[in-house]
What does this fold into?
Amino acid sequence: METLLEVNNLVTEFRTADGNVQAVRDVSFSVAKGETLCIVGESGCGKSITSLSVIGLLPSNGSITSGEVKYEGKPIHNLPFEQMRKMRGTKISMIFQEPMTALNPVLTVGYQLREPLILHHKISKSAANKQGIELLKQVGIPYPEKRINQYPHELSGGMRQRVMIAIALACSPGLLIADEPTTALDVTIQAQILDLINELKEKLNMGVMMITHDMGVVAEVADRVMVMYAGKKVEEGTVSEIFENPKHPYTIGLLNSVPNVDDPDFELEPIPGSMPSLTEQISGCRFNPRCKFATDICREIAPPEFSTKEGHIVSCWLHEKVEEEVKHGHLTAQI
Amino acid sequence: MVTLPPKSDQKILLELNGVKKYFPIKGGILKRVQGHVKAVEDVSLQLYEGESLGVVGESGCGKSTLGRAILGLEELTEGKVRYKNEEIQDLKRKEKLKFVKEMQMIFQDPFASLNPRQRIGHALEEVFTMHTNMSAKEKRKSVIDLLDEVGLKEEHFEKYPHEFSGGQRQRIGIARAIALNPSFIICDEAVSALDVSVQAQVLKLLKSLQEKYKLSYLFISHDLGVVRYFCDRVLVMYLGNTVELGTVQGLFANPIHPYTQALLSAIPRPTVQKNLKRIRLQGDLPNPANPPSGCPFHTRCPIAQDMCKVDKPAWQEIEPGHFAACHFAGTKI
Ligand SMILES: Nc1ncnc2c1ncn2[C@@H]1O[C@H](COP(=O)(O)OP(=O)(O)OP(=O)(O)O)[C@@H](O)[C@H]1O
Ligand SMILES: Nc1ncnc2c1ncn2[C@@H]1O[C@H](COP(=O)(O)OP(=O)(O)OP(=O)(O)O)[C@@H](O)[C@H]1O
Ligand SMILES: [Mg+2]
Ligand SMILES: [Mg+2]
It folds into this structure.
């Protein structure tokens, strides 16, 4: 598959009252055309900041301090503001968890759909309107001719998210970044939106970078998965490798923390402790204080990335031991 | 498949009979009542001692309002609430006090109501100040015991609210709820805001406290996986109406209402089975201020017939202990 996005050794830092803190620590990954990469991990692990680094929308106190982001082979992390803005209109689009914060409440849906089309494609208002209606149809909004003249507050949550997706698709981007696009929605509506994203990805051969904390959503939409913990990538692999053959104790812990609706005998095995703060100093592996396998080396030296199978990467000194334990049933990855 | 009937030796702790809660919608210059949001529509059910009853359904279906109505935090529009065989819906403030100790609630963010400048230990002591005549020393000891009970340490006594992580906050919320030895606790999305690894810890804690103190829970959640893990029985609501009630085993294995079937099917499973056939509902949730006629679900129901648009289906016991409200209960969609 053709690589669309490539992120190499990304480090993103924030200037804070406590000095500089690293929110993303040396993270590398890629997304191919027509592929969905899910970034999964718990609150504060750096999922959103990773994606904002890619699209160049970091908060003002944040910046990429090393590493590179390449789109179709060309570095984009150091583009001047205007050029990056153009990238965002035409190549990379993003949708967010709460569409209400991204949609302008005082402008009609139509206005917000037409604007990027007129700006980037230099087409007339009426042509843009026609295309806008087409886009609304494409994302499954009934009566698009009527909806296009409505304001965001007149729409339901699911409908707003569809409008956001329509706007994101307006300029046929190559890469769609979706940051928790369904977290605020009810499950029956979430299912519709996930189906829609999947369908559009296939139809338009887009790359999709989907951020979520929900392992169920990951299984539903991902081709490949990157698991993050405290700013680091801890594991990466195809969706079936991650779910059927997880190797990092954190990934296994995550899987065993989500109750399985289909298994009445499922027993939860919580990971003890909680996520460290950005300012907390942890030597060695960032997961070691919560890891039941941790040994001296884990506490002293940060583990490198081990490539176990093609495309399956794990940052754990003990991944072989963990794998053995899983195999012999001493440790259950229940899913 | 047969659903297990509730054991006959189970004692009823709480009983709802035709509970309704309507909120007036006011509008116009004169602020006249123009209609009602029927947040809870005619709910009747029983909750047994020591059980966890899950309440699930989509946003706005009336889960929280039902919980608040049970605790008397909302005045009922109609209906009766019996707790330990006493009608409590019309009790005056003073008579209610004894139930306040017995019935507690844990919220999604238990800190919303806490004073950010008050040490946690002192905030917890206030519960005892209000409801007991313990000495200062006894109160401090009780709080430290409580902290220990929910997996926190004595050193947390002196800390301020902002110094706690999400999971620790929820533990404080639990400590406050169990302080007066209640027999019934309503958990309203109590673990929803937590990271899954921490959510699992808190669920385990709630379970162990239940065993130790024979607690009953009304467990409100939109997460069906959590409900399956945590609860004995589950109630499904849609637009203020109860649509199905059964044991967790019975209802998950054999959902008889089309809405329940669709809801269960829509849950993203953390397993890779790409070719699983899913039921997808069309359309959005209707506006609860303007609910559909007849069966509230008919606008999205794949098997709805003409009669469903007109006649509201009755709440019926379809199998022992398994209730539903559907003209075509049991039809697979
Ligand atoms: N402007 C900022 N200044 C300082 N720190 C920040 C800033 N924005 C985010 N952070 C920190 O960066 C870390 C990563 O944040 P990020 O938003 O990427 O988390 P996330 O994985 O998306 O979490 P969630 O699931 O809660 O959205 C967090 O610890 C967060 O507190
Ligand atoms: N005080 C109030 N005044 C008017 N309407 C209200 C009030 N409280 C709740 N409602 C309405 O009653 C309905 C049920 O609300 P409720 O909060 O019980 O839903 P819920 O199932 O708890 O939803 P969620 O999952 O979003 O918490 C909603 O339509 C809501 O807007
Ligand atoms: Mg985020
Ligand atoms: Mg609620």
